User: Fold these one by one.
Assistant:
Number 1:
Amino acid sequence: MKKGILQRISDSAVWRSIFRTGIPDTDLKRSMLIFNNFFLHIFPAKMKRHGLCFSFTFCLGGISCLLFIILTVTGILLMFLYTPSIERAYFDMQALALLFNGKILRNLHRWSAHGMVATVFFHMVRVFYTRSYRPPREFNWVVGIGLLVLTLALSYTGYLLPWDQLAYWGITVGTTIMTYTPFLGSYIRFFMLGADEVGHEALLRFYVLHCVVLPFFTGLLMAIHFWRVRKDGGISGPL
Amino acid sequence: MEEKKHPVFVKDPNKTYGLMEMVDGTSPMTEKRVEDTVETFPHYIILLTICTLAVTFILMIISLLFDAPLEELANPLVTPNPGKAPWYFTGIQELIHYTDKPVIPGIIIPICIVLWLFLIPYIDKKPGTKIGSFLNRIFIGGENRKVLLILFTAFIIGALIFTVIGALFRGENWNFVLPWK
Ligand code: HEM
């Protein structure tokens, strides 16, 4: 029988050097395809049929993860175009809005960020109602709450960066709430802002937190979260 | 039978074990409860691809249709009325509006909620002691966790309602307004 073009490519030495497995026409090859691939090997070779039910997870954790990836990519691109200084930040944003690509880039980053706050919250709601936090998954719930707090912090620190009225007063209102803390209130606010008022110091702090510190810890906790999902035996069963 | 004439597997007389049976199946799993599993490829990978493309596509459409807001340059001398926190904190702002002790909705309630969320998996457990089962009945409501369900549902609905009111239904001086007017 004559070999098809696909068959030939997937039999070629170059293809095999990269992907090892040929056309996955047996269950063995299908498993090999998963665990011989760097990106796929975080998945098990087989999954519970039940875990794939859309109506059980609504894919909310997965969508949160996807939004985080989109945010990372668009965020890095935005970093090439943005200067964290009160003289330039706002005008960089304005310049971005003049270009179609720049506008789309910023819109994608903004709407994904809002979306992620929502999907992470509803992911928590789903996990609660399916009672998936029960042993052995207690700790993964704790990691999850950490991720919820980090997601809010990421969104909040990003809110200041455009340095427009919305940003400035959003952060002023938010950090004023912190001053209501008994005894420590004004110290906490000073620590957050690096000054008594929202200004250059606050912008720099929020920028470093938003672009380096918080994404790092979010990525770390996400790695632990996914690792635990597998160590705890995959998606929990029905109630 | 066929096997009698041409035995496929001859039992070695020196061995205490032998191949008993050939079973049709696609999994090498042994001595384990049969789980209802499917191959990750293609079942999950297809789902993953569709979901990824759909979400990305929807985000693209939203980003084409709606521009991220950019107001005037930040100006410490011009206070907008009302000054609003980002939408996910307007629920707290709304609660602060009801009281003259802002420390309660602003600090104490959020901290308590986060602590309570952290603790949920550790309080909703099979109680081991008498005190444990007493506390369980009060804070969880027994095996079907009635109390916890009510508390959590109240938290979710409360958070949604106050957030929506704070974000959309509050205008100048935090007075009630209708967003479509
Ligand atoms: C950045 C935020 C988060 C990401 C990216 C994320 C991602 C995921 C993913 C992909 C799964 C697999 C199942 C699914 O998609 O539903 C999962 C499961 C889980 N998540 Fe999250 N998650 C996040 C936040 C949270 C939060 C806030 C909680 C709860 C407080 C949480 C608790 C759990 C638990 C307990 C499981 C196991 C569920 C089960 O076995 O049914 N996660 N997470």
Note: The CA atoms of residues 55 and 126 of chain A lie 10 Å apart.
Number 2:
Amino acid sequence: MNCFQLENVSHRYDKTTVLRGIDLRLNPGEILGLFGHNGAGKTTSIKLILGLMKPSEGKVTVLGGEAGDPHVSQHIGYLPENVMFYPQLTGREILSHFARLKGAPLSQVPKLLEQVGLGDAMNARTKTYSKGMRQRLGLAQALLGKPRLLMLDEPTVGLDPVATADLYRLLRDLRDEGTGIVLCSHVLPGVEPYIDRAAILTGGSLKAAGDLPSLRRQANMPVTLTVKPAGNILGLEKVIDQAKQSTGLMMKNVHGTLQVDVRTSDKMALIETLLQSGEVADLGIHQPSLEDIYVHFIGSGGLAHRGGSQ
Amino acid sequence: MNSIWTIARKELSDSFRNRWLVAISLVFATLALGIAWFGAAASGQVGYGSTPATIASLASLGIFLIPLIALLLAYDAIVGEEEGGTLLLLMTYPLSKSQLLLGKFLGHGLTLALATLIGFGVAGIAIAVLVDGVAVGALAIAMGRFIGSTILLGWGFIALAYLVSVRVSEKPIAAGMALAIWFFFVLIFDLVLLGALVASEGKLNPELLPWLLMLNPTDIYRLLNIVAFGDSTQLSGVLSLGSDLPIGTGGLWLGLGLWCAIPLTGALLLFRNRKI
Ligand SMILES: Nc1ncnc2c1ncn2[C@@H]1O[C@H](COP(=O)(O)OP(=O)(O)O)[C@@H](O)[C@H]1O
Ligand SMILES: [Mg+2]
């Protein structure tokens, strides 16, 4: 059973269309990164999956049922963007309240608080919490009752790099236990090793979705080779210039090392030529990273978008 | 049912935590005792007057205080959760909007009922113990009726506060509208009714007029606590219209009950149609 499935989903607030024909699905035991600039429609997508509102068009299925059905929400954990809590209550009181609402055993409460690193602060009122601590409490809240679908909206905002890495590791453990996880973010650095698939959303449309190799194919971006000459750099340049006749590539000299951008489809042929020439001392291959791919899909419009609503 | 109770118990424990419950109980007890002993001071005597007079004075004071406390307790029920950012999160839990609002009602309602029961209950017991020769049976019945109707009146205004709280999106606006509700029912309504009476010079249908009192829960409440002693000569001002009401105390109780049920139902419907 899918954790969720969006089929041709569009959504309008009043007259503005903020999601257009989205097809997206999440399997159990999978971490999906949902990336896009501010205002791309990430939070709206999540709210549709939570059943907080109905899509203007299309179909949303969640855990084999209907979004918003109490039997379905029982199994969903959600960390809202910018999570807030009752300031007069302690972390422990708040988590107990939400545990009761979810029908989760109260014995989970102290364990979860320990797990997110709030063990020492659990009896302090949350008005004394920092942004990062509120975020951790929000995470503990999302983990109540061992959800089968976990949705985290901008979970790393307010977390330092160490806490962020901790969070990602925790998510990987949950994934290995079969939880389906959606990680919504406009911050990409560091996330790549932890996600199974990524979806890139811009202006309400899904630009690409899939695992990294598939995204690389979809992006069809050049691979960068760094080539260190064995002897004279001119000899090496000549070899590459010759290869240029048959393959499209770009070459530049960076401190005595050549950087060559080559189409994925021409990569193997070029490497073979280089190795046979005897002019190469060392060779490095750099695949485009998730961030490169993201920038590729968001395009130059991304900057304008990113300047938009926060 | 479980989730309704979870919401209610949080409201209850909040009112213990922020000392609301204790404060209201104390205010009620102090006022009740003060009125019982000094209420007759105007007519030149100090000490306990009579049970009907004491209850009538308490009810006259109650119409100012009870609606105000109820509105203050409840006006931010939903708009407060929304501004605090917790409404959205709550709505992702297996909890319907109706369950959330009913849970709030149960919590706020119990808070007010407890404070009323403790505050006026203590006062009633003190009167029974300290006043020589008071008819304890009659006092118990009158106090019971007073406490019961006070609780119902409070619940009605809690429900009225929810009508505001589910509609507006900012707390200060909700507070302002709650005060306007208080102003209308407690101060304006009777004046307007009186004005209409005078201006109409008896041209208004005399059978219809007394029913207008049923449009104000605070008037029903006062009628109930005076008429029940069987002496409608005690009714003054617009309330004297009430002596012509062709319904007994049962009808007045029903009226107060409807003043809880109808606004609460309205708030539930409005809330259900509200976008999160
Ligand atoms: N309640 C709302 N009413 C009207 N427009 C909204 C509302 N919520 C979001 N939007 C608009 O919808 C678009 C998508 O918002 P959102 O889903 O929050 O984006 P993201 O989470 O990717 O930053 C934005 O242009 C935003 O201004
Ligand atoms: Mg967002």
Note: The two ends of chain A are 35 Å apart (CA to CA).
Number 3:
Amino acid sequence: MENDGERVATQTMEKAGAENRRNVAISARSLVKTFGTGEFAVHALKDVDIDIRENEFFTLLGPSGCGKTTLLRMIAGFELPTSGIIQLDGQDITALPPHKRPVNTVFQSYALFPHMTVAENIGFGLKMLGRSGGDIDKRVKRMLALVQLEAMANRRTDQLSGGQQQRVALARALAPEPKVLLLDEPLAALDLKLRKNMQIELKSLQAETGITFVFVTHDQEEALTMSDRIAVMRAGEILQIGAPTDIYERPTHRFVADFIGDINILEGSVVSSEGRTAQVRLKDGAVIEARVPEGVDGSGDVALAIRPEAARLAGPDETAALSGTLENVVYFGAASYLHLRLGSGEEFVLRHSGALDAYDLSTGSVLGIALQPGRARVLE
Amino acid sequence: MSGAQLSAAHAEAGRRARNARLGLLGPAVLIILLISILPLGITVVYSFLTPGTYGGVTWEFSTAAYVQFLFEEDIFDGTLAFNPAYLQIFLRSIGLAFGAMIGTLILGFPTAYFIATKPRQQRTFWLFLITLPFWTNILIRTYAMLLIIRDEGFINLTLMNLRIINHPLSILYTDTAVFIGLIYTYLPFMVLPLYASLEKLDFRLVEAGYDLYASRWKVLSHVIAPLAKPGIIAGCVLVFIPGLGAYITPELLGGGKKLMIGNMIAIQFGSSRNWPFGSAAALILMALVVIVLLVYARAAGREAKAHG
Ligand SMILES: Nc1ncnc2c1ncn2[C@@H]1O[C@H](COP(=O)(O)OP(=O)(O)O)[C@@H](O)[C@H]1O
Ligand SMILES: [Mg+2]
């Protein structure tokens, strides 16, 4: 029990090691993109390194304006990097124009050609590649079947619903069988129900076609459910790359922890450490054991991250790691979220899934908090 | 009120409404009659009369004007022989107008594209430059063009000073001069409708084209041109039709030697004193224009239906 978190971590690392040996599809080194000059310069990307592997569903996740679109457009060939290189299958494509890259894009606005039918839209890429009419017809039929739009082949694109247009855009980009498919917030314009359906459809399409997907979103839930790996970006930098469980369970950066899901972040300082385990004294005096992830300096003043589900109310016979006064209880059926105020004045949210009958839940009552071992983490 | 009374009241009200409508339409109808139908009627009537000795017409029915367009009457035995002279002027006019249309399209398209892709604030400036020639009288602009292309003009002097040529290129008073003049005069009429179309173009579609393996030319022919088609058609009509009836440009730059339809018609009402033939030629020109417009209307109709 004590070492559960650790074991999961080692397993994932081993898996990651195996995945590393898979071929890299897209590789970017020291990518920098600056728009404008002088005092008007916008640093859209600052020194980005990234390896996207073959056949993976890779997601760029970050708040609006962090440079996701810029990175995607650079892979597509619409923007030249200010410096740095981009490779596709080991070949330098940094200066290659978009029409010479075996990479296709699903645009956020779909960008379907209004002067063509659905079938003509889907066949456009193949036509430009000089495929024969028969080949194109066959492939278009298959793509129409793949996105379940057989009946719409001869419709004009403005006669389709948003979800249907989305699927045409997808079929059009997949038809030429690109090495890499780029998707820039493709689901943002759809309503919630349709978006959930499309998430599942996209994921299975990726598995079916075996094409590398590079998917852009600012929705952390979408990223967690769909991706093989996620790169979390902020202000033109990549903060952490990893599998959804890595990003969620083992964030290395305070921003990443905060951006993905609910999390408690407490200030403290390291009093002693052994290997990658540190004893951290919080501001209200409690000392807590926490893991120090690779690449994080575990000394001096640090921030401590604890997920609400890694904490619960301490039983009557347990020694509580922390204690706080109750401010609010939000009941969710299977579990309740309790908002507590610690002695340091910091807010702490915990998710309690057991019965609450034994506790005094009146506002202002002082409650003990028990922590799941190994789940508290020191952040950068 | 009985049913009969009611329907009578209805009929009365309907009649009043109709009268009111006619009353409102009246001025418009009058203007159309005065400006368009009346002169056209006079032209049609004149074309079927006999020329007067000192200009004007004598009231004697004749189809000679239309016959004269294609045939020449032998002065001795009165037999008709085919005379292609006038037909040639028409064909040359069509050729020059068509050439000017193609020329302005080739020059105008990149110009309009350039302006449409500028930041919004800068576009007004470039459009202002395009319309700047309209601020000067066409006669003066054409004389200026004459000064530029004549033997001792700017083009020849520059080329000779650069020792690219030894003798001046004789451009003035040739079809080439008229062609250059027409392109210069009608270029804005091509650029403006093209710009209006290209400005509405969604440039994300251009990116989608590049993304799907289309080269620059393929993007132009498969994405941009089809989407700019309304502007292309409008520009072509706006250049071809006035180009066909051009008068000042061929008069000055063609030196009266290289006639276009407009000059030929003017001569009939002037020195040739053959008003019926002038009228007939004007009507034939108009028939040509109507044909062009019908083709345009059909193309535009197809477009509207396709986008309906
Ligand atoms: N063409 C451009 N000119 C100037 N600034 C730009 C341009 N494109 C993007 N930017 C800026 O670069 C930053 C990153 O933009 P973007 O890549 O679109 O972010 P995201 O897709 O993550 O929302 C933003 O600050 C944006 O304003
Ligand atoms: Mg974006």
Note: The mean pLDDT of chain A is 89.
